[in-house]
Amino acid sequence: MKELKSTELLDKQIQLEAAKKIQNILEKADRECEEILQTVTQELEEARKQKQEFYSRKLKEEQVNLEATFPLEKQRLELAYIQEALISGINEYLEKMGDQKRLSIVLGELNEQKSVLQDKKCSAYIYGFDFNDAKKELEKAIGNNLLKVEKTEYGKMIIENDLAIKCQQGIILEAQDKSFRIRLTLNQIISRILDENRDQLNAALFGEGEND
Questions:
Q1: Helix axes 186-196, 2-97, angle to 10 degrees
Q2: Residues contacting residue 121 through CB under 8 Å, at least 6 positions apart
Q3: Of 3, 82, 120, 138, which is most buried with the most CB atoms under 10 A?
């Protein structure tokens, strides 16, 4: 009987010691979990700060870049708009002018080329204009130095400066010995006028050019 009680007491003692050990293990595990959780939380907070600082720097860099490029982009858009408005106005003006007046303007360029054309035989290539009208006026202006007159197409014989001019009309003169080609084209005339008046245009638009 005594042996039975001794065995029961021993079992209880073993159970108590086991329970204490389990409790200690659980408490230690809790502490370790808490430490791990705290470490992870700190790392997450540090990562969040680093990410926030990174995007803050990137935002400032983009803002600086935008501030640097905005004036240039604004000026580019203004110039594009002004160029478009100018060409639109020129197209409307040329359209109202009529074919004969445009032909007269183109042939008026011959006055600037008299020294080149003097005693030179040349051929003429016409595009855009009424062929017979243009040929007749050329024969009057150049006389016996005009070898032949033929039709051609816009941009076929020479590279044109594309200004978006709707009236694609012109005359190309080519020397018999191929020593020169003279462009008598609306594109060429409009391009020259714009270039000659660019300083005045810039001054009117931006307050620049005339006093530089």
A1: 110
A2: 145, 147, 175, 176
A3: 138
Q: How far apart are CA 184 and CA 112, in angstroms?
A: 11
Q: Rounded to an integer, what distance in angstroms lies between the CA atom of residue 130 and that of residue 184?
A: 15
Closest of 197, 150, 167 to residue 102, by C-alpha: 167
Beta bridge partners of 185: 170
Q: Which pair of tokens denotes residue 89?
A: 């106005």
Instruction: Judge contact between 91 and 166, C-beta under 8 A.
Output: yes
- Nearest-CA neighbor of 147 among 133, 156, 135? 135
Outline where 114-160 has alpha helix (H).
114-117, 131-142
Residue range 153-194, pLDDT digits in tens: 887 877 777 778 888 899 999 998 888 888 899 888 888 888
∠104-164-134 over CA atoms, to 5°? Answer: 25
Q: Is 98 left (phi over 0), alpha (psi -120 to 50) or beta?
A: left
State the pTM of this model.
0.58
